[in-house]
Amino acid sequence: MRRTDRRLRWTIALVLAAGAVITAFPLFWMLSGSFKPQREAIDFPPTLLPQDPTFDSYTQLFTDLQFGRYLVNTVIVVLIGGVGVLLMAMAGYAFAKFEFRGKRWLFFLVLATLMIPVQVTMIPTFLVINGLELTNTLVGVALPTLVSGFGIFLFRQFMTTVPAEMLEAARLDGAGEFRTFWSVVLPMSRPILAVQAVLAFIAGWNSFLWPLIIATDQNSYTLSVGLALLNQQISVDPSLQLAAASLMVVPVLVVFVFCQRYIVQGFALSGLK
């Protein structure tokens, strides 16, 4: 029995290792190809590792193309999304710890927004943003995704676990509602804040369709739109395209790696799987 169990564990480990290698190989190929010169990138048969590694593709992105501008725009959109995380935390706290008329119906409406496809609301949202004269602005790019029903739901689920005694103790000490929220609830909500911050970062960083619709000026493009524009303009330089793709993918992986522990903890404490 022990020998059979050991063989089973080794078999499972080998299958999982093979799956991990297959999954990670496209990422490795993208990073490796981004350091190849153009001549080597189009050689056949291709080489796994660059024979003459160079940063020329990354340099060209920021000197000859406008990827520096696209990167700044994307970072600004992500930072604006951070304000949305705070707003969703406030809404989740209200639904979790306050009693007011219409609370259940309001929360039902929040959940109902999850069943509406984003594509359905794009035209009305564009008309509203255009009426506010926010087209071709980064605020207009970030505003429609500032809050989400899923984010409010996550915060609400987590904040129901905050002990009411701690809130009462803070109020007895003279803290107002905002002070209680800021000094007691938010520090206890770090895991779910990390989850929502990562989700907001990914949504803002990878956003493509809405920035493409709302921004007609290249100075307002984000990285994803710039990458699509690059693929249309340049079709014979795989190294440059892979470098731009790496610039899109690597920051998301880095954020996830550093916040992985909080993400798992946040989902576990929220009761989600």
From TrEMBL:
Entry's Gene Ontology BP terms: transmembrane transport
Segments traversing the membrane: 12-31, 70-93, 105-129, 141-159, 242-263
Superkingdom of this protein's organism: Bacteria
Keywords in alphabetical order: Cell membrane, Membrane, Transmembrane, Transmembrane helix, Transport
Record-linked PROSITE patterns: ABC_TM1
Domain ABC transmembrane type-1: start-end pairs: 70-259
Keyword Membrane carried by entry: yes
One annotated Gene Ontology cellular component of this protein: plasma membrane
Membrane topology: Multi-pass membrane protein
Principal place of residence: membrane
Pfam families the record matches: BPD_transp_1
Localization (cell): Cell membrane
InterPro entries in the cross-refs: MetI-like, MetI-like_sf
UniProt record similarity statement: Belongs to the binding-protein-dependent transport system permease family.
PANTHER family for the chain: ABC TRANSPORTER PERMEASE PROTEIN MG189-RELATED (PTHR43744:SF12), ABC TRANSPORTER PERMEASE PROTEIN MG189-RELATED-RELATED (PTHR43744)
Entry protein name: Sugar ABC transporter permease
